[in-house]
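An instance noted here:
***
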Amino acid sequence: MGDPAGIGPELILKAFLDEEALGRCAPVVVGEIAVFRRYAEMLGIGMEFIRVESAREARSAAGRMPVIEPEGSGAGDCLSIGRIGREHGAAAHRAIVEASRLAMRGDVDGIVTAPIHKESLRQAGVMFPGHTELLGHLAQSRQTAMLLAGGGLRVALATTHLPLKEVPAAITRGMLERTLRILHGDLQGKYGIAAPRILVAGLNPHAGEGGYLGREEIEIITPVLDALRAEGMRLSGPHPADTMFTPPVLAEGDAVLAMYHDQGLTALKYATFGHGINVTLGLPVIRTSVDHGTALELAGSGRADPGSLFEALAEAARMAARKAGAR
């Protein structure tokens, strides 16, 4: 469900009105019927809500939404649309925990998430910076990685939601090696690319310019790339980030690894905003998401664009089919 005060509920309602969006999978919603009913009434959407106890009971179809309600649900009673709030964060957290439980148990083939609001989560006492880190904790994954995709681009991040001043210290040889192994393995397993080509960005301007603008490329990034190349991985770089997103460079890779959030995602969101998706790598389950936030200013307006959610649904279905075919 995501944050009940944001645009997530509206996006999900729009998905259940669209035969094409539902045609690739049989989704069940984890959230609160009272929240969806409030939005449906506000937006004039006719929708039948069916409370179910398990995904196996769900029979989704256009105009009919099966919903699993987590224990403790009650956000609909105190919902303040378009506002940050502790109860909103608690409701989003309950839905994430329940969806993770369903996926880890094998009751569903994957998780697709609507956006959450980090401040509402913090007010609810949930101190993870985002879905990626929280889902990694719930799945007991040693390390996860964030990948955004769209418009022919796949961009993974070595670090995610960190203040910029903390990024250099976070980029260690061990972390970078684990991230590249996760990216390489999921490009094979989730995307079906037998021998992935990965373009790796430098941290500093001009990839450090031989140490003149920083030594991370010399002391950390290049040694990791050399060690993994020796194992057979197809890695290039470290590339200067200001030219890495040009067509001739991108043509040489299947995915990009950026060192920090805005280094990688500015170019991708410029190219795909509204239709890109977020994929969590390193989880034992499939998880995709929209590539945007809660857009509190649009909540309840009826103007939210569901394109990214539709793409996230389609990608999760493709991954699940690929996984089933590999068994």
